[in-house]
Amino acid sequence: MKNNPVIITIITAILLATPFTTQGKELTKIINEDYKAYSDSLENNITAFTYLDDDGSYKTYLLSSKQEEVKVPIFQIGSVSKLFVAHALAKLVANGDLKFETQLSEVLKGVQYKDKRISAITLKQLANHTSGLPRLPINIFIGMSDSLQPYKDYTTAMLYQFLGTYELTREAGKSYEYSNLAYGVLGLAMDTYLRKNKNTSLESYIEEEILEEIGMKDTKLTLTDKQKERLIQPYRENDAVPNWEFDVLKWAGAYYSTTEDLAKYLNQYVSDTPVVKGDVTDKMKAKTHTVNDRMTMALGWHITPLGDKQVYWHNGNTYGNAAFIAFVDGKFVAVLSNSNRVLDMMSVDVLSNMIK
Fold first, then answer.
1. What CA–CA distances, in Å, run from 120 to 8, 108, 156, 288, 320?
2. Secondary structure (3-state) at 263
3. pLDDT digits over 211-234, tens only?
4. Helices then strands (H, E): number in the chain?
5. pTM, to two decimals
6. Which of 102, 184, 97, 95 is nearest to 136 (CA)?
7. pLDDT tens figures, 4-36
8. How far is CA 149 from the centre of its chain?
9. CATH code for 82-207?
């Protein structure tokens, strides 16, 4: 989940510098040699790649520095989780339940906002990181009991207290600042709306209306005991660290998934016969804010040039997991690893080699 302006700039530079060509090593050779060397450089690494092959099938590679074989490994995916929250918003808007311009005060009615500008923040501004809210709430470190669990102790009451007392330092809708807090607020607002008006929770809505529809059986906030047997231990370099636990900010990065499941999700954006309705994916892909001359925002997705194409991407990092997914020009790639090292460069390299 550690997206920040520096990482965003690095990713943008990688995309702009990547040659739009298929010359060089074959894709399988890149993965099995170059990136196997990356995996082997760590003592306990497992890295999974899934991409859309030319014949329309999903191709998966598992790279491991360990000897034991793991079938369909499950990883915590960090900030890639945000796409499911944005997707739920797009679907609720497509169905006429909510509007992108719905204001925070319309769904979170229990907050006494000191700064009335916060009450007027829209759901779209939360979803495209233009809300004016900071990356993290300033009271998140109060009562933090474990430095390896930065989100575990942050409660709904603490979030309400923050929203009621914080004063914006920049106007909503004017500029981009990546915010885990914004997605925590967005998720809370949508969950509150669904519980009051639809007799369901946001977790159930995402599960039933998105994940089950697509067939993403291994993508969950809470894994079954059987799924936990395939959950990969995260590492910061070679030191084991825990998967992150969440309370109210879970919508910013708590989901678990596999590259195979994420491939099914990505396929909805490139397939001629998706199971997700086109008006929902159209809303997800529509540009909502221009960050600068190198990057724009859709709904959750970042959009950056790759040669003369536009690549939609999102990454995610916890203290011991890394994730990157992207699609462009009918192709996609999903990469997950149990390392805190950023995966973006190798992921873009794979993606650029897929495009003809």
1. 27, 11, 20, 18, 36
2. helix
3. 999 999 999 999 999 999 999 999
4. 15, 12
5. 0.92
6. 184
7. 544 444 444 444 344 333 333 577 777 777 777
8. 19
9. 3.40.710.10
